[in-house]
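[Meeting: bench + compute handoff]

Bench side (C.D.) handed over the final construct sequence. Compute side (W.E.) agreed to return the predicted structure before the next meeting so the bench team could plan truncations. Sequence as handed over:
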Amino acid sequence: MFERKTLLKTCQVCILVLLLVIAGSACSSLGLNSVDAPAVQPVQVTQVVTRVVTQDVTREVTRIIEVPVTVTPAPTLEFTSTPEISTTGSSELPLVSILVYSDCLYGPGSFYLYKTSMAAGSLMEVVGRNQDGTWINVEAVHGWNACWIPANQAELSRGSVNDLPLVSTVLPITRYDYSSPSAIARRSGNEVTVSWKAVWMSTDEVRGYLIEAWVCQDGKYIYLPVFVSTTYEENVGTISVKIRDEAGCTEPPSARITSAGMRGYTLWEKIFWPPY
């Protein structure tokens, strides 16, 4: 009896040891006996995104502006070369009294840029006149830096306006704000059409374009300033001006063009004028 109990206990111990060995092997195979668990690798997911790009396309529409211009000078006036003007002033120059408050401009025409103003009763020296005698070039007594006022807004101290020399002045130049247009001229008989592409100018700068032409009309060789005024909205496409130029003068016709802004004019661009 004692031996059977001893044998039974021995078998139970053996079975317990065997179970412990099997359990240890299983844990080892599963890695449960390791202290540090392996790091989990992230899974990269790629997402494809499609972007739709739209582009607006605008088309420039050319707009033609035609301005017929005809100026006929008085038959007794003839164009002569511009005399040299002294910048030191001279007591021999005739004087004028300004009759009404007058704006004095850079050129002999209401379309030229403003330069200064003169009060009624001011006494000025007269340097000269434009071709048809409608504008006079005045400066301070013994002064310089002359400008233009209408002849009917002043009274000469002696003589008449037609006795004054024919003069021209230099316009204020702005070099870097914008450019001069490149104009072309085409003739059809006595009519010359000058066309150019509009030059971009800002809304506060744009004034228009100035053409100075020397042409033949009614047998007289005349100086003809032509101003085309434009707004910012109108200053697009192609602009065209028609000028009358006839045969009968010995002097060759010519012309030049500039862009006019609030602060001045661009450098002159020559217009190659078609002969009659």
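W.E. noted at the follow-up: Helices lie at 2-30. C.D. will use this when planning the next construct.
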